[in-house]
């Protein structure tokens, strides 16, 4: 029963993530037009949405791969550790890009509001924190996988 519930949850989340990738791609492709309609100037700070968005879509794709492993009931494997580390690096890179955007909003574009600067600070801390959490998780999965493989050899 528990395995069926896990498969259903993993499948449902995987489908939602795939839908969000499609929506994300459409939004990134139409971003310049959306900004034009909203009369928002396309400066360097706004341009940083593109690399962040592409990396975020990669992050979502990594989560799809992680849920696929969960669905096939093989989470304790070195491939899971690899996926977690790849996701960690993507998260760190997004955090760095947002940090660059924060610095630009402070030093180059002082017209941006304090709310934008606070939001950028929050997202910088969030993505770097997620990167650290994914690093810890990958190390835990690595250790658990090694114990599992050692245990499988002794049985």
Strand segment tally = 0
Helix content class: over 70%
Q: How would the global form be characterised?
A: elongated
Class from secondary-structure proportions: mainly alpha
Order of helices and strands: HHHHH
Global Rg: 19 Å
Q: Strand-residue fraction?
A: under 5%
What is the count of helical runs? 5
Low-confidence stretches: none
Overall residue-averaged pLDDT value: 89
Reported for the largest beta sheet, the result is: none
Report how far the terminal alpha carbons are from each other.
26 Å
Question: What would you say this structure looks like, in words?
Answer:
Helices cover 86% and strands 0% of the residues. It contains five helices and no strands. The longest helix has 41 residues. α1 packs antiparallel against α3 and α4 runs antiparallel to α5. It is mainly alpha-helical and 155 residues long. The mean pLDDT is 89.
Any chance you could write out the topology, listing elements then pairs?
Blueprint: H1 2-37, H2 44-47, H3 49-71, H4 78-107, H5 114-154
Protein traits:
155 residues; mainly alpha; 5 helices; 86% helix; 0% strand
In a few lines, what is going on in this structure?
The protein is an all-alpha fold.
């Amino acid at each position: 029963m528990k395995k069926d519930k896990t498969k259903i949850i993993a499948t449902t989340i995987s489908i939602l993530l795939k839908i969000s990738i499609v929506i994300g791609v459409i939004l990134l492709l139409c971003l310049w037009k959306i900004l034009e309609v909203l009369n928002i100037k396309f400066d360097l700070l706004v341009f940083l949405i593109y690399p962040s968005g592409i990396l975020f879509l990669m992050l979502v794709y990594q989560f799809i791969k992680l849920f696929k492993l969960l669905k096939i009931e093989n989470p304790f494997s070195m491939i899971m550790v690899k996926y977690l580390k790849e996701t960690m690096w993507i998260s760190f890179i997004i955090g760095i890009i947002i940090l660059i955007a924060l610095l630009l909003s402070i030093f180059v574009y002082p017209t941006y509001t304090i709310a934008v600067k606070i939001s950028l600070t929050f997202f910088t801390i969030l993505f770097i924190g997620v990167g650290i959490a994914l690093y810890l998780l990958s190390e835990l999965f690595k250790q658990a996988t090694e114990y599992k493989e050692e245990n499988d050899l002794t049985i």
